[in-house]
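Note to self: keep these together.
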Amino acid sequence: MMDMPGLAIKIRRMELRDIERVMEIDRQSFSLTWPDRSYIFELTKNGNSRIWLAEIADPEPFLKVIGVLGVWVIVDEAHISTVAVDPAYRQLKVASQLLEYALKMAGEEGAAVARLEVRASNFPAIRMYENFGFKVVNRRPRYYSDNNEDALLMDLDMVAAGYTRLAENPS
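Structure:
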């Protein structure tokens, strides 16, 4: 468990039994959601995929999933595919804890750069990513099909940020 003010979080890998709850969080968070078959593929067929869940004891001793973060680790790149937190648990640093954990795990696998797309209007997420050191490197016009909103492409140099074992042993 990770202690945060008023909230103890456990982070673990997603399993097939979690799909219904994760899809509920998706529906509460996004206008475009992944279908259940996408999660099944990510969990059973995509060897590059890691999906991390944040859960809390609510009520004790029952665990409740409150956040999800997907990342694809491909050679030296970690691509953040999704981040969502149950609306009742937002502003409690759940997404930040998930992102930090995912970056550390991807760094241990050799990822040297992290990438993601974020809606240009999602200022809280952009601010969080910038706090981790992500920089806007490009804009993808009309990326989101539900409203043709642009996406910002953001990158993080994981070596410079200290999230990879390469940072500990520079050659």
